[in-house]
Write a structure and sequence with these properties.
345 residues; alpha+beta; T-fold; nine-stranded mixed beta sheet; four-stranded antiparallel beta sheet; 19 strands; 27% helix; 28% strand
Length: 345
């Protein structure tokens, strides 16, 4: 028997992020907020000190535009056209899609393929998070893995075209599109005079400046073991930063009493198995955070810590299956533990 679990809420990621204002002086009438279901998740934008709600039309239209270009779940998107032309010809795409694919290839490279944007055949085979979810056979998995290799994506910078070298390959930007969309929404808001805002696209949180009181935004890190949303393990304070997450409890299917989560290891073709349940990345670019958090979770604790320490202006919070929390150097003085069931190592 298969049981399928998928959270669709404002804070959807495994280490769910909840926003906690750091001052009681921000009153209800001093902010405006709107939520829409886009990019396969719940997207919320909260703006402070700005009263014209027409800004939401521009912001959500930008997300909708990116979704229409990059989704693999709608026929006719640019990525759908690139995938359909795999092994045959190059497809001209928008600046949005070209940039995001190029960044995806960059993160695929620096993670040495642990994150690979051509994982689409394997993702579709498992179908976790969809009505077609199943546990595939080993033969199906091995056949699917043959189509995964980010080095077989051919980019033409001048023509702005993308070609997949081999027929059957599928690009999947699900691990980076939300981050890019968050960065683009921030641009829209800034262009329209917004100074203070929180953009939350399915748990990918981007903060614009601090809050209007001059304080930092206090972000609660969700307990990944809790069924109840809003139960945190600790908090951090940020300004002009993005907080992205990846974790194994976000979406899964249950078959014959065993849970299979959605983060797939391309080496084995099965959901990754290591000591981590979730990783939170704190950085300046949501595109970067979204593109690298899954790769770091796939690396495991030791290699993930080493990788983050090697990056400029990037911090991370790791949560293990043993309820241990590991912090990179700069975040140690920022993170405040609030749940005694967890231990900072």
């Amino acid at each position: 028997m298969i049981k399928l679990r998928r959270y669709v809420a404002v804070m959807m990621a495994v280490i769910l992020i909840l926003i906690i204002t750091t001052s009681c002086s921000i009153k209800q009438n001093e902010w405006i907020s709107k939520t829409e279901l886009l990019l396969g998740t719940s997207c919320n934008i909260k703006i402070y000190g700005y009263k014209d709600e027409k800004i939401f039309i521009k912001a959500f239209n930008r997300i909708r535009e990116i979704e229409d270009e990059m989704t693999i779940n709608k026929s006719g998107s640019e990525i759908d056209e690139v995938n359909a032309a795999a092994g045959m010809y190059a497809v001209k795409v928008s600046e949005d899609t070209f940039y995001t694919v190029k960044k995806g290839l960059e993160y695929s490279s620096i993670s040495k393929g642990r994150y690979d944007i051509t994982v689409g055949t394997l993702v579709k085979l498992w179908g976790i998070g969809t009505e077609k979810a199943k546990v595939p056979s080993l033969d199906e998995i091995n056949a699917s893995k043959k189509y995964i290799n980010y080095k077989d994506v051919i980019m033409d910078d001048n023509a702005k075209t993308i070609m997949l070298k081999n027929k059957g390959m599928i690009i999947d930007l699900g691990g980076i599109a939300k981050g890019y969309a968050a960065d683009e929404v921030a641009k829209v808001l800034k262009e329209n005079g917004v100074k203070h805002a929180i953009i939350n696209l399915g748990g990918n949180v981007l903060t614009m400046d601090g809050n209007p009181n001059g304080d930092l935004w206090r972000i609660g890190v969700q307990n990944p073991f809790s069924e109840e949303r809003g139960v945190s393990i600790g908090t951090i304070e940020v300004k002009d930063k993005t907080v992205t997450t990846a974790g194994i409890y976000e979406r899964y299917l249950e078959y014959n009493g065993k849970k299979y989560h959605h983060i797939l290891d391309i080496d084995t073709g099965f959901p990754v198995e290591n000591e981590l349940v979730g990783v939170t990345i704190i950085t300046a670019s949501s595109t970067e955070g979204d593109g690298i958090d899954t790769a770091i979770l796939l690396m495991g604790l030791e290699k993930g810590l080493e990788f983050v320490k090697s990056q400029k202006d990037m911090e991370a919070i790791f949560v293990t299956k043993d309820k241990e929390i590991y912090l990179t150097p700069e975040i140690k003085t920022n993170f405040k533990l609030t749940n005694k069931a967890f231990t900072i190592k």
